[in-house]
Each structure stands twice: as structure tokens, then as C-alpha cells.
Model the fold of this input.
Amino acid sequence: MTNLSHSSDKPRRVVLKISGEGFCPAHERGISMDAMSRLAEQVARSAQTGVQIAIIMGGGNILRGGQFKAANNAIQEATAHYMGMLATVINGLALQDAIENLGASTRLMTALHIDTVAEPYIRRKAIRHLEKGRIILLAGGTGSPYVTTDTAAAQRALELQADELLKATKVDGVYSDDPEKNPHAVFYNELSYADVLRQNLRVMDQEAIAKCKDHGMPIMVFNFRKEGNLERALSGERIGTAIKAV
Ligand code: UDP
Done:
């Protein structure tokens, strides 16, 4: 009988969620080539070590669907969310070129069909790309409105059978409160999914945390702005807050 269990020497596979803020300097918007190159260099170097990397890009540096909610009714909320999903495709196209300029092989796959610029996301194809050492860039979130790319990251981490979901943020990990506003905020080395949900800690969407909780997907939240941190996270080093069942 075929043994379907994973061998212990199977390569590490991760899903990395980078918000739109990773594509521009702090407190700015749009796309910065410097920010993009910093990301690309670390990702390309990590891929060379054999880590299989799937990246989910956010789009908040361009727009988020929710920002149109209160403004007026001219743009329906669902339309605005599709605009947000398209923003993630713009980031994906930019990051793809930045990574490929360094000689690494990539595939941009989208949950929204935009066949002239990217492949449609097909789970089995995505896995094949990873196995071949290609960095996959997953744009368009889930392809459905009213959720964010955090939920897409949890979803893809599960279906691609990643070892870990890495959430890149601008702070060192998870705190009891916003450390940029409250100097007394307490840093957590480790948290359970239940704690994050119960305390309503603003790490990722509740939906994303709940998905990871239900299926035991470990999450690591870390500061991508610190030099070398992205590479360390991709390699499996514990540098931020680990969120898991215990
Ligand atoms: N979005 C969506 N469905 C998805 C993923 C994203 O509708 O599955 C839209 C949503 O409006 C979101 C925007 O795309 O605000 C950009 O994504 P996100 O807010 O997650 O970007 P980030 O904050 O990570 O930069």
C-alpha cells in the first residue's frame, strides 16, 4: 500500500503574507522600488536554500475596499473590494519583476482571472510550481469580496499544506495593545489561537485566525522592516510571536 504520510526530510514550505505596507516606506502609499528590492532580495536568497515560498500580497498601499464604504454610494462596496483585489495584482506584477531581476524563478497566479498577465490560481499547479523551486506570488486574495488578504493567506496556507503561515508586520510581533500608541503594551512570545480570538488581538482578521485554529496551522508574526528578519522567518527561525494551539 502507498504510504501517504509526509517524509521528515520534505522541504520547508511557507505562505508569507505581506501587506501593501511592505511595498512602500512607512506612512507612505504606492510602490517604492527600494522597498520592493529589499523584499525581493531576501525572498530570492531564501528560495535558493530550498524553502518553498508562496507569497500573498496585500493591496493597502494602493487601496482597500473598506475605505469607500462611508464615502458615498457611487461605488458599491463589492465593487470597491474588487478594486482592492486588483491592487494586489499590481503589487504582484511589481514584486514578480523585482524577484526575477535577481535571477529567481516565479509565477504570478491570481484568484481573479486576468489571463493576459498572470496564470489562474489552480491549487495543484501552485503545488507543482513550489516543488519545482518557483516562488509563487498569489494575487487577488480569495477572489471574493468582503474579506481581506489575511483570510486568503490562511486559506492558501491550508490548501497548499504549508508548514507555517508567516505574517509580516511593521512591529516585532503581537502585543496586548498597539505598541506605536501605547508604550506599556506587553509583547507576547507565544499565544494560543484562542487567546488571540478571546482578547481580540489585532494580528490578522478573526476569520483568518479561526481558520488556522480549526486546522492547526501555525502562525508566526514578525517585523519585516528589521534587517534580515524576512530571511530568518523564511528559514524557520523564531523571531516574533508564535501563534499555535497551546
Ligand atoms: N480583498 C477582497 N477579497 C480578498 C482579498 C482582498 O475583497 O479575498 C480586497 C479588500 O477590499 C481589501 C483589499 O482587497 O481591503 C486589499 O487587501 P488587504 O486589505 O488585505 O491588503 P493589506 O491590508 O494586507 O495591504
Q: What stands out?
A: The pocket of uridine-5'-diphosphate is lined by residues 19-20, 58-60, 64-66, 81, 84-85, 87-88, 141-142, 144-145, 147-150, 152 (CB under 6 Å).
